[in-house]
Amino acid sequence: MNVDLHYTESGPADAPPLLLGGSLGTTTRMWQPQVEALSTLFRVVCFDHRGHGNSPVPKGPYTMADLGGDVIALMDRLGIERAHYAGLSIGGMVGQWLAVHHPERIDGLALLATSPYMGPARNWRDRAALVRAEGTGALAASVVERWFTPGYAKEHPDEVRGLRDQISATEPEGYAGCCGAIETYDLREELHRITAPTLVIAGADDPSTPPAEHAEPIAERVRGARLVVLEEAAHLLSWQQSAKVNTLLTRHLTAADLGDAGAPCRPG
Predict the structure, then answer these.
(1) CA–CA dist 115, 137 (Å, integer)
(2) Could you give the CA distance from residue 137 to residue 131 in angstroms, rounded to a whole number?
């Protein structure tokens, strides 16, 4: 059963809608570096995945169909027939699921630091067991350590602390439930079904989803997809390289609106 996701909205009500789905353990605040820039051209809707932030926390485990179905229900609630979608990490997995199973609802698609498959499954079972036993604070520091390059983390301790606090504040059952969704997720053989103009953005220094193992297979299997690998960027590339990401998203999604998503797209 779908749940009513918590969301924030900004930008002109009559602008093209853009949904933003965040990383595991984050809230709508993860998109702080994007909202102002993207709201000049889009109706930006940020949402908390089920089990996260202010969204309901049903008992897990969840499936990617549960998370994607929640997004479709949110679109229906807001009267949005079609939208652009940009997602990072698990948010990008939800985006791939939506583009495969509900292509009629997705215009432009942007997939950031994500993957069509994040095995082995036992890793996610172990992580779910850890947070159920010890809470999300038990892994917050180790997770955020992979989100930034060491130099950036050292220079921006307040940002690191704020994102670590987002993870620590996530309900253990919600975090563990989403681990279950990743555990059973595998879209490698379905990527060819995606028809939305697709931009894939990866971080050259991302230890969680290294480009060669995760981003490149998406770009190879989604017809017409374009891959951009950003230097000096780890997993949370939308934060560390926010200006370049904002430019890439704006160019790609504007081109999709104009039916010209094949135009060259390079880091800003």
Answers:
(1) 25
(2) 8
Check residue 89 and give left, alpha or beta (phi > 0: left; psi -120 to 50: alpha): left
Encode pLDDT of 73-109 as tens digits: 999 999 999 999 999 999 999 999 999 999 999 999 9
Give the Cα separation of 86 and 37 in Å (integer): 14
Q: Which residues pair with 199 in a beta bridge?
A: 110, 226
Total-model pTM: 0.95
| 3-state SS record for the chain | CCCCCCEEEECCCCCCEEEEECCCCCCHHHHHHHHHHHCCCCEEEEECCCCCCCCCCCCCCCCHHHHHHHHHHHHHHCCCCCEEEEEECHHHHHHHHHHHHCHHHEEEEEEECCCCECCCHHHHHHHHHHHHHHCCHHHHHHHHHCCCCHHHHHHCHHHHHHHHHHHHHCCHHHHHHHHHHHHCCECCCCHHHCCCCEEEEEECCCCCCCCCCCHHHHHHHCCCCEEEEECCCCCCHHHHCHHHHHHHHHHHHHHHHCCCCCCCCCCC
Please state, in angstroms and rounded to a whole number, the distance separating the CA atoms of residues 67 and 36: 26
Whether 24 contacts 179, CB under 8 Å: yes
Instruction: Specify whether the CB–CB gap between 113 and 237 falls below 8 A.
Output: yes
Average pLDDT in the chain:
95
145 residue type, one letter: E
Half-sphere exposure at residue 30, Cβ-oriented, CA atoms within 13 angstroms: 34
Contact 219, 134 (CB under 8 A): no
Number of other residues whose CB lies within 10 A of the CB of residue 94: 29
